[in-house]
Specification:
alpha/beta, 5 helices, five-stranded antiparallel β-sheet
């Protein structure tokens, strides 16, 4: 895909990440604004904010910071994620068809580069890290977003990225083999339960559950369960089946 390099001279920490374990997706939260306008904002604001990439309303892609470098976009996940900000026409946060197509292609390209699986924690939302409603189209309405209760928009996006990588069918087969009964539900009992990118404490934290809610597990490895949402893995010692 065609990517325009317009590197920032401000709000670019120039720190090389030691590891990249996820791609973090965002929305710009400024309806109708262009990719270049958001790039220029990053380059001029006194706030410490930036992003590796921005996808525009016409599907154009701007690289603000080389993807091997850290950006200031995803809070605690900055040290291990490549960030993508995405433009949108209105406050629903829904992406236009050209924007969505480029977002899928760019995310798939980055997943291939870093050996990540979009449906196994390789692609996350800003929401998964801090609970912020970002990107709004991929956050359930019950949490302030525009997605369905079962996260249909987000799940479709992850499937589309997997398909763009050419491993969508393989991913579906793996999930079916791991959870032939379509998973089971657990209630979180801890006040704050980390979501990790893999099944163990050696994997990076990619989010946190604080609502003691009920979640669906689609794969189990030891004391760890993989969330149906695709957000990552949680330790089942801090949950009970429902």
């Amino acid at each position: 895909m065609q990517i325009q390099n317009a590197y920032l001279t401000h709000n670019r920490p120039r720190t090389i990440r030691k590891q990249t374990t996820a791609i973090a997706v965002h929305w710009v939260a400024n309806p109708g604004s262009s990719a270049m306008a958001n790039r220029n904002y990053f380059n001029s604001t006194s706030r410490s904010v930036s992003s590796n990439y921005i996808v525009g309303l016409q599907g154009e892609v701007i690289c603000c910071i080389p993807d091997e470098e850290m950006s200031w976009c995803t809070n605690a996940a900055n040290s291990y994620t490549v960030s993508i900000e995405t433009c949108h026409p209105d406050w629903t946060g829904a992406f236009g068809s050209k924007t969505y197509a480029s977002l899928v292609e760019l995310t798939a390209q980055l997943c291939r580069k870093y050996g990540l699986h979009p449906q196994h924690g390789g692609v996350i939302r800003h929401y998964d890290v801090t609970g912020k409603v970002c990107p709004k189209w991929f956050v359930p309405a019950s949490k302030g977003g525009s997605d369905t209760a079962d996260g249909a928009h987000w799940q479709q996006f992850l499937r589309d990225v997997a398909n763009a990588m050419g491993n969508g069918n393989a991913a579906a087969s793996a999930a079916a083999a791991a959870a032939p009964a379509a998973g089971y539900r657990v209630k979180v009992t801890a006040d704050a339960l980390h979501i990790r990118s893999g099944n163990g404490t050696s994997y990076p934290v990619v989010g946190c559950i604080r609502d003691k809610g009920v979640y669906t597990i689609v794969e189990t490895k030891g004391d760890w369960g993989r969330l149906k949402s695709g957000a990552g893995w949680i330790c089942l010692r801090y949950c009970r089946k429902v």
